[in-house]
Amino acid sequence: MTNYSATLRLVALVEGMRxxxxxxxxxxxxxxxxxxxxxALRRALDLGRASEHEYVNAKGKRVRWVFAExxxxxxxxxxxxxAEVWSSLAPRTLPEPVHFGSRFRPAxxxxxxxxxxxxxxxxxxxxxxxx
Length: 131
Prior knowledge:
single chain; mainly beta; five-stranded antiparallel sheet; two-stranded antiparallel sheet; 11% helix
């Protein structure tokens, strides 16, 4: 069995909204195990279909999250510890301006924690001096 990562695309369809080329889209990355690429694609399709759901929003409109496609399907290394599974290279707004000599304090990080359901759990507060 091989580990794979798959990027799925789900699209939010809101009742009564005009057609749009820029709908709200979710692109979760999932890890799965499969015997080969074909089996990995079948598993990714199953996971995507299982992610579909519907609810009524605060305005009383039905919202459907529909599985649209599998964007990527990549084999992962046998050892996952330290393996990069996603990266985003884009301009970001930071709290303070940065310059070439800027110094950062990554040991002071407070990572966001999500439950397996994708629900935000909390920001972790590490004890002082934790590295």
